[in-house]
Specification:
With about 400 residues, the protein is α/β, with parallel strands linked by helices. It has 2 domains: about 160 residues, no CATH class; about 230 residues, Rossmann fold (3-Layer(aba) Sandwich), CATH 3.40.50. The chain is built from 12 helices and 13 strands. The strands form 2 sheets. Strands 1, 5, 6, 7, 8, 9, 10, 11, 12 and 13 form a 10-stranded mixed beta sheet that branches. Helix 2 packs antiparallel against helix 3, helix 5 packs across helix 7 and helix 11 runs parallel beside helix 12. The two termini are about 40 Å apart. Bound molecules: S-adenosylmethionine. S-adenosylmethionine binds next to strand 6 and helix 11.
Length: about 400
């Protein structure tokens, strides 16, 4: 572990994928066709003449195809390119077969499209580039993309498979700090103590820099430190609290991730960029500016399971501060048993000392939740509905419930 608790690992460029060459192909394995790169499912003869392996594969492909169609719906309006690409993949058995190599538990459409983007960002020279708004000044309309996508996947099957099997969807969405600024202000006001922040699923740790950014909520005032490099704009809907003039005080901060992305590693930084949708120039700008802030003020990051490490990290929190355990867009990546264990840890620590748990993607009723847990029980408040990319936050009236 490094000086600041940072885990040191060999550069990912020399990891299991090998270092991508200028064309985005992996140095090991060379050029293999899509057929060669995809897994061959075992086939078992069936008395009906239909082979069980074929049927299994058809079922798998149709479920995967559905996921791409759903993703296309989510991308509509925000990324015309990804909407079209996802629909094309949904119809193409060979590309679906490639996508099926993704590591289990990952959102496959996001992972495949990020893998394609990453190979292009690595310099792959292919006409598919001509459709990406971040890679060409005059992108071609995505309508005619199908043949190019298929050809690209054939040419770069090895590089894509490698990313599908070693990378994860770890988008570090800096813009989400726009609601953290308000919520952390609210917690400080209600608890009357400086905050000790523990972020589970911090990815590259950029959200831990939330108090280095400035905020424009359209009220006429720009909040946050005068020397902040990045100003995040966000719309406040519903019944927001009055934004605090200055950021809440932080006494302690640490981030944990199963796989910390190191912004000082060229491969990791490119992967973070690849996860940003091609049309999202503001998100890309926010990412790049936050990375510069990170280089100046790197927070402490630990690689490991945030749920397992939580009790020990809470023990490190200085007295006279309130521990705030937070995780945004993480719990949906945890198996149910891990989520249950997380809530158990929170309850058991709460019996010893009060703490705050801030999270989303747990309860069936969508939204950002704030649980204040102490020896006398827990109070839960559904703060509001958040835009996935943090561009707006719809504040709900306070209907706290005692658990
Ligand atoms: C979609 S990213 C979100 C990153 C960050 N929270 C944000 O909002 O920008 C989800 C992250 O959670 C991490 N993760 C999932 N389960 C975890 C666990 N049990 N412990 C630590 N990190 C975890 C993943 O590795 C990934 O980096």
């Amino acid at each position: 572990m490094g000086k600041s608790g940072r885990v040191r690992r060999p550069s990912r460029g020399s990891g299991p994928c090998g270092r991508p060459d200028a064309a985005g192909r992996e140095s090991a394995g060379g050029r293999r066709g899509l057929h060669a790169a995809v897994m061959v499912m075992p086939t078992v003869s069936h008395p009906s003449g239909v082979r069980a392996g074929d049927r299994w594969r058809d079922m798998e492909y149709s479920a995967l195809s559905e996921r791409f169609i759903r993703f296309a719906g989510e991308a509509a309006g925000e990324s015309p390119l990804y909407e079209v690409l996802a629909r094309e993949v949904a119809e193409d058995h060979q590309i679906l077969s490639l996508a099926s190599r993704a590591r289990p538990g990952q959102p496959v459409p996001n992972l495949l499209l990020a893998a394609v983007h990453d190979v292009l960002l690595a310099g792959a020279d292919h006409p598919l580039r001509g459709f990406y708004p971040d890679l060409t000044p005059c992108p071609a309309p995505p309508r005619a993309i199908a043949a190019y996508l298929r050809d690209f996947c054939l040419q770069h099957a090895t590089a894509l498979t490698c990313r599908l099997q070693t990378r994860r969807v770890q988008t570090n969405e800096v813009q989400r700090a726009a609601y953290l600024y308000l919520v952390f202000g609210l917690i400080q006001e209600e608890m009357g103590l400086p905050l000790s922040l523990i972020e589970i699923g911090c990815s590259a740790g950029l959200l831990l820099l939330w108090d280095r950014f400035r905020y424009d909520y359209g009220t006429g005032a720009i909040l946050g430190p005068a020397d902040g490099r990045l100003t995040l704009r966000a719309e406040l809907r519903g019944q927001p609290p009055t934004p605090p003039g200055r950021a809440a005080r932080v006494a302690f901060r640490v981030g944990v991730d199963l796989n910390v992305l190191d912004v000082r590693d060229a491969g990791d930084l490119r992967w973070l960029r690849a996860l940003v949708w091609p049309e999202a120039s503001e998100r890309r700008h926010a990412l790049d500016t936050a990375v510069r802030a990170f280089e100046e003020h790197p927070p402490r990051l630990i690689e490991g399971d945030g749920v397992e490490l939580l009790p020990a990290l809470i023990d490190e929190v200085p007295p006279g501060t309130i521990p705030v355990v937070f995780h945004l867009h993480v719990a949906n990546q945890m198996p149910a048993s891990v989520r249950e264990r997380l809530f158990e840890h929170i309850r058991s620590v709460g019996r010893r000392r009060p703490l705050v748990h801030l999270y989303n993607n747990v309860h069936p009723e969508r939204g950002l939740y704030l649980d204040v847990v102490s020896s006398t029980g827990a109070v839960r408040r559904r703060l509001g509905l958040e835009d996935g990319h943090g561009r707006w936050f719809d504040w709900l009236p306070d209907r706290s419930v005692t658990l």
